[in-house]
Amino acid sequence: MNGMKHIASILLIGCCLGITSCYELDLNPLSSASNENWYSSETEFEMSVKDYYRHEFWALDNDDMTDDFMYRETPSEVVKGTLNGQSSNVTNLWSRQYKSIARANTVLSNLDKGKDLGISAEKIKQYKAESLFQRASCYARLVSHFGDVVYLTDVVDIDKAFTLGRTPKSEIIPLIYKDFDDAAEGLPVKYSGIETQRATKGAAYALKARFALYMGNFDIARDAAMKCMELGIYKLYPNYSELFLSSTKNSVESIFLLPRSVEYKETLGYIQVMNELPRNVGGWGAYTPTWDLLASYLCTDGLPIDESPLFNPSNPFENRDPRCTATIVEFNTPHLGYIYSPHPKDKEVLNIATGKMVKNKDARVNAQFASFNGLLWKKGIDETWLENGKDVDPDKIIIRYADVLLMYAEAKIELNDIDQSVLDAINMVRARAYGVEYTQTDKYPSVTITDQQRLRTILRTERRMEFAKEGLRYMDLVRWGIAEKALSQPIYGMLYPVSLLEEKVINKGLWFWPEKPQIDENGIPDFSSSENKGLIAPISQRSWNNRQYLWPIPTKEILINENIKQNPGY
Q1: Angle at the Cα of 204 (from 178 to 1), degrees rounded to 5?
Q2: Is the dihedral of CA 106, 109, 113, 115 positive or negative?
Q3: Euclidean distance between CA atoms 283 and 328, whole angstroms
Q4: Mean pLDDT across the chain, nearest whole number?
Q5: Separation between Cα atoms, residue 8 and residue 90, nearest integer Å
Q6: Which DSSP string do the residues of 180-202 spell out, in sequence order?
Q7: The three-state (H, E, C) secondary structure of 436-447, written as one string
Q8: Other residues' Cβ atoms within 10 Å of the Cβ of residue 389
């Protein structure tokens, strides 16, 4: 109950700060309004610092911007190549990060008042470190998406904000690293109480490693990841499937997270839940994994599906890495009280609770808007999604230990500094998926090769299998320079109407995939052979535009400030 009270206080503080005049930043997110009546007590400092942990300041990239996600025949603006300066993704990221930066700078500029207010030196040190952590994290997200951005470390008024130009990212990057380093110096390794969502030393190291990896500074990424690992307080949670459930709170694997709470109305969101729930339980079944993602999971021999003799396109879930069926609902298995099957012949399915056959609303033979490609998400979804009015409160994990291990391995691979520690890091993550120790090499397909190019492919595949649906795929595509390949392929699904699917696929014994797709060195599948034979349907066309490797500066910023110039191509 104390934990719930703490979450409630954070949410209340966030609401209070949202309406406090000293934080009204609607005119220009770069500016900070008057704060002369604030910071008059330790309580006000505490409220300001806790406000850093609002969910809106920590938005991860939407999966709909990647080749892992499908929403019927409607691709996102990024996937369509139509991202522009008025897109909500663009304007929200820009404004929210700068609002948070302005708040961090305001706290930092007022810390000198702390001694006169009787705030302990230890608390002042922590507030400073949390503010630096927040500022570094915000600038890391801005630079990763926009490149050169407006950089400021002081409080500025509205007039000055309208005159600021963009600073080259080459100048900003080392300043972000310094903020992360200074933050790590002042942050605790862990908190003794219930404040599990606040920044820690490990979080500063981990997010520094992530940013360094995005910037291609592999030596810095390696060292930061190693510092996080050497803290010795993080472990891989033993059960991959359980890790993402609402019942698994603040696991030993979570390095930095934001809590959710049904009781205090901080939840996943009704729209997302309904779009991911099957139609048999009253959901919409509209947000689905792609065939691209399903094709990416290795077989249990460690080989991709186009090389492994274990792969059967008629049963694409058989003999696959366990994360495949932990992430995507396997056909003819129980899911939320029903046997799941998208097969046209399965007009009825078993209701497990009643033991009776019922109309199968998850097959397009009965429901036109059932999953267009036959797939549904399973990762993080259990019976709690059907409770509390379909409110769901899993932790919002910003970064976890598996990511640190794989970032360490990737950095060393890119530096061509390949040793046993690289193989161990990858194998720890992979072995956990199989439920065994990484030293039990006879019980999972352990990685033993040391060739740089082959390891690069293995590492990238491992990340995709491990982090599907966690908001990391987009920046992986961007930093690897493969978005133009991954996001220029059609989004495929089953033939429709069902009579056409039966004629060309079912009656010829070609269900589910008519043939195995070929997989390239980046893990991108090629379904064109089946498409050319008329056996599968291109539901929509991805049309990535290379200008999107950098996002556009929000149109409003260009219009109100002649010193802010637009990125190329917009």
Answers
A1: 145
A2: positive
A3: 16
A4: 93
A5: 30
A6: HHHHHHHS-SS-SSS-TTS--HH
A7: CCCCCCCCCCCC
A8: 9
Do 202 and 235 meet the contact criterion of CB atoms below 8 Å apart? no
Q: Which of 81, 62, 214, 145 is nearest to 554 (CA)?
A: 145
Is the CB of residue 256 less than 8 Å from the CB of residue 398?
Answer: yes
CA dist., res. 71 & res. 290, Å (int)? 9
In this structure, the number of other CB atoms found within 10 A of the CB of residue 24 comes to 13
In sequence order, the β-bridge partners of residue 328 are 377
3-class secondary-structure state, position 224? helix
DSSP H or E stretch at residue 537: strand 537-541
Residues contacting 276, CB < 8 A, separation 6+? 283, 285, 287, 376, 377, 381, 385
Nearest to 401 by CA among 191, 175, 250: 250
519 in helix, strand or coil? strand
Closest residue by Cα to residue 554 from 59, 223, 230, 98:
98
Read off φ and ψ for residue 204, nearest 5 degrees.
-65, -45
Instruction: Write out pLDDT tens, residues 81-94.
Output: 999 999 999 999 99
Q: What is the pLDDT of residues 418-430, one digit of tens each?
A: 999 999 999 999 9
Cα separation of 387 and 245, whole Å? 14
CA distance 492 to 470: 22
Q: Cα(391)–Cα(472) distance, rounded to whole angstroms?
A: 24
Q: Give me the helix-helix angle, 88-110 and 121-146, nearest 10°.
A: 150
Measured CA to CA, the distance from residue 319 to residue 302 in angstroms comes to 10
Structure tokens given for 246: 């609402």
For residue 49, the Cα-to-chain-centroid distance in whole angstroms is 24
501 CB-side CA count, 13 A: 21
- Count CB-CB contacts under 10 A for residue 451: 11
CA distances from 144 to 147, 183, 186 (A): 6, 20, 25
Of the two residues 161 and 228, the one the predictor is more confident about is 228
DSSP one-letter string for 332-378: TEEETTEEE---TT-SEEEETTTTEEEE-TTSTTT-TTS-TTS--B-
Q: Any bridge partners for residue 340, and if so which?
A: 333
Phi/psi at 167 (5° precision): -100, 135
Q: List the one residue out of 339, 377, 383 whose CA is nearest residue 359.
A: 339
| Residue 532, burial from CB neighbour count under 10 angstroms (0-12, 13-18, 19+) | exposed
Contact predicate 471/61, CB 8 Å: yes
In percent, how much of the chain has pLDDT > 90?
Answer: 89
Give me the pLDDT at residue 5, please.
32
What's the CA gap between 397 and 50, in Å, rounded?
17
**Distance, CA of 102 to CA of 106 (rounded, Å):** 6
Distance CA 34, CA 400 (A): 38
- DSSP code for 505: T
- For tokens 């549904």, what's the residue? 376
Look up residue 464 and give its two tokens.
Answer: 């995709």
Percent of the chain residues past pLDDT 70, beyond the cut: 93
